[in-house]
Amino acid sequence: MEEIKFHHTLPIQLRFNDVDKFGHVNNTVYFSFYDLGKTEYFSSVCKNIDWTKEGIVVVHIEANFLSQIFGTDNVAVQTAVTQIGTKSFNLVQRVIDIKTEEVKCICTSVMVYFDLEEHESKPLTDDLVEAICKYEGKDLRKK
Predict the structure, then answer these.
(1) At 103, which CATH number?
(2) What's the pTM value of the predicted model, to 2 decimals?
């Protein structure tokens, strides 16, 4: 498997309520970190989407928790698209410690391009595919 290069990194501010009684970030909070990373990635990479009519929705998500995050840690979420299909694409994200670059958690998800007016999936636009491929530095379309 080819090593993934993460071009998008978003520092995360840990909040008081992110930490549970054991002193570490609760595993359910990681998904809000991944949502922040996705939102920032798509708003900076895919500038031509009319978010009132089109959307990108999660249809599958899974996470592997590798190491605890404590309330005093400095972390960031990294996001990369790894493969693009006709209506969907694969996204890999990870939370890292900013100082040590230790990977704390890895998340994979399948995202679908969605028509918010018709409430159904739709084919990815050429503009969207080209913007992602340009940002990632390679052609990610399924062969």
Answers:
(1) 3.10.129.10
(2) 0.93
